[in-house]
Amino acid sequence: MKSAGWVRIGVGLFLSVLAACGGKASGPSGPSAVPQIGGGETLFAEDFESGRLDAWQDGVNPSKQRVVTGADAQSGNHYLAVTYAPGSDGGWLTRFFMPGFQSLYVSLYVRFPNGWSGGTKLVGLYGSRTDNQWSAFGKSGICPNGTDFFDTMLVAEQIGNPGPLRFYTYYPDMAREPSGDVCFGRFGDQVGQANYTGSVALRPDAWHRIEFFVQLNTPGNSDGQQTFWVDGTQAATWQHMRLRDSDILRLNAVQLSFSTGDVVPRTQELNMDSIQVRTQR
Prior knowledge:
Elements: E1 25-27, E2 30-32, E3 42-46, E4 65-69, E5 78-84, E6 92-101, E7 103-111, E8 120-129, E9 150-156, E10 165-170, E11 208-215, E12 224-230, E13 233-241, E14 249-257, E15 268-278
Antiparallel strand pairs: 1-2, 3-15, 4-5, 5-15, 6-14, 7-11, 7-15, 8-9, 8-14, 9-10, 11-12, 12-13
């Protein structure tokens, strides 16, 4: 299933998934205990060293995404290469964590090769209903009501090559379009919303570490927050958020999203590596 739109984001594979109730996880090579790493439970890790994309549960498209072998990987010898063809985008890769969590943290490395042009989505944390893992997907233009969905992403803006990172969030209190019944994701750049604490430039042809953390609000309160970091420096935080009105909504999917609001004039490529999902930073 397609992501919400953007007005136009060791030897072998290590994979461990922790169910919300705890216990053990099953990966491509069978059950294994989930290691404990500072910053909460590790739910998932992908370094692409298997050479496959088996760990991703939705969106795998070999015409758009492939695992590359090369000494220029961020770690190991493999990384993900995503192709944006002219007039198209790079698709998406999704991993679910049903029924969900109250907080999720994802870190990854991204590289924009020389010649990159325009903006793109990068990574999203989705809030679907615990009884419907798809309720937060395909919601471009739809205004959340507090019990149906929310989602929040990091996007590279369309200005710059690449442009600065921004939040891109669907939430119940978001501003509506002039018609009153249409919503598109917001950067949170209005007074009293996100605090973009620094302009952290992304250099082309360099691996950058991106970290993204979301803490849900208590239903009925505006005490949620989200923060992202670039190469270890906090780049923005958005506090006092109301992302939901019921515990029926939880953080239950992470998506690498490669859609773009630009018309891609020529084939270009984006690289990712060393992805980890935890419950805390």
